[in-house]
Amino acid sequence: MAATQRIVIENCSIATVDANDTEYATGHLVVAGNRIESLGAGRAPEGLENVVRRIDATGHLVTPGLVNTHHHFYQWITRGLATDHNLFNWLVALYPTWARIDEPMVRAAAQGSLAMMARGGVTTALDHHYVFPKGSGDLSGAIIGAAREMGVRFTLARGSMDRSEKDGGLPPDFAVETLEGALAATEATVREHHDDSLDAMTQVAVAPCSPFSVSTELMREGAELARRLGVRLHTHGSETVEEEQFCKELFGMGPTDYFESTGWLGEDVWMAHCVHMNDSDIAAFARTKTGVAHCPSSNARLAAGIARVPDMLAAGVPVGLGVDGTASNESGELHTELRNALLINRLGAHREAALNARQALRLGTYGGAQVLGRAQEIGSLEAGKLADLVLWKLDTLAHASIADPVTALVFGAAAPVTASFVNGEQIVENSRLLHVDEDAIARSTRDEAQRLARIAAQA
After folding, report:
1. SS3 267
2. For all residues of the chain together, what is the average pLDDT?
3. CB-CB contact of 406 with 23 (8 Å)
4. Residue 91's beta-bridge partner residues?
5. Alpha-carbon distance 170 to 240, whole Å?
6. 17, 368 Cβ separation under 8 angstroms
7. 439: enclosing H helix or E strand
8. pLDDT attached to residue 158
9. E strands within 399-444?
């Protein structure tokens, strides 16, 4: 049996994001195989065996890898469109184009979305994919394959829609599935791709899109399916004032009450956005441990509002960060959401007391791991956890005069990623991806975006 190989990282600042927010001004971290073996202040212990690499991380901050809890990869090839729309008008403008995606487009878009996140410190990514036009190919397989090639830990939230224009919904009729078809395809995806092992690289969640594109039957039966299969549940919730009005008109109740009536509150559930939540809604999420994917840039881009993140955290609601689709957050990066979450929440009722730098970092790491149900494995730097971690370079002009490294990372300019590891394997070096050709991905996504635009224009 081959001896376990070790990587030693030394001379760095470390923010563990553990339960005590332990930090080391100058410390070390030892990776053995795919696990963190030890970490602490000062130099690594002498006499470690089978050390295959030593990294002098002087001038760096080491943190857990960032965890993205909400995204729509396919939107990478429709960036920069409908830039002055609110959510409903934006959806109406873009659904006719999205309804014409196919497998090569989705694969290219997934590669672009994953590449942008991974080179910026994301080690665990999620894609909520819910558009499955008839005859479009194996879209779930294309997305999962792209993540596997990148080396990123990944959750596919297998989405679905069965409420089209003819039923009072927003998607075109040919872009939705039947109730039976959506449930069968979702179950097949879980059975083929979901891995429930501790160090799983691919997991699947059940994820009907939203109340205004999904029937009550699909919501209710989707929840039953997820619990029968032992996987998590994800959807959009309380994103806009218009959504709340829609729910009250159609269901006679607000979004949170509607979700509870269909089985969609619980510690195995997380929802994207949750911008328009009253005290009762937040209390219901806290009571049931329902999680939230906070997407500050997208919420601002679509003028949806400011989510009550400080109140959610105070109540005990699990909260992580999400990029959201790149048609509503064109940068496609998660590390910029650390800063935006802090700044945007300070525009709310709590002002300067809303969030601090360490709370923002926790949202993007441990909070995300909680929301995805993986806090025992990832999200903090602790002995025995999986070796998903990032080395942020903070000794350049951009951060040179900021003494505190966590403040530099969150408040300062986007920090370069010198190295990023997933399962102890390096996937990024000097802000470049190691396993894929970024330039080829750029060309492919540009070509597929142009092909989609031509197809949509001819429709």
Report:
1. coil
2. 96
3. yes
4. none
5. 15
6. no
7. helix 438-458
8. 98
9. 417-422, 425-429, 432-433
